[in-house]
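In this section we walk through a basic example: taking a raw amino acid sequence and producing a predicted 3D structure, encoded as discrete structure tokens. The instruction is simple. Fold the sequence below.
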Amino acid sequence: MKSFAAAALLAAGAAFAQTPPALGQGPGYHDPRSPFKPLEERADIVSWKLLSQVTAKAEKKKLVPVFPTAVQALDRKTVKVQGFMMPLEVGDRQQHFLLSSVPTTCSFCVPAGPEGLVEVRTKKPVRYTLEPVVVEGQLAVLTDDPYGLYYRVEEGLAVH
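The resulting token sequence is shown next.
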């Protein structure tokens, strides 16, 4: 009987072989049990795989992001990013919000580290949705943000 139970536990563990990172770290973890589909890679949108290649180094008692050349080249360029909306304002229309590489599963938790989030400020309010949002605007690659963010889209517009 013990061998059957051990085999069942091993099989269950294999179904969730990907170990999720700690909340608030890394590019985000898309739980396979999520009711939302993971984001699909699109050629016209900056990839989260690229954005999450940033590393951090300790410098004078703080962590400083180190961006690969391909990410640095995007600074102050007009780009499209997609993600799941995390409102920063009250109401169903948002002009200041975060986009996450993965859907939120808890309204009190940050689903990814700074490499899996983009702060967005739009020209026109965007209706809040649980579905992925695509925003086009000028990307700022942040090296010393006071809130610890790595990316910001300014003058954004919601697109399809």
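Looking at the output, two observations stand out. The longest helix spans residues 2-15. Confidence is low (pLDDT under 50) at residues 1-17. In the next section we compare this with other chains.
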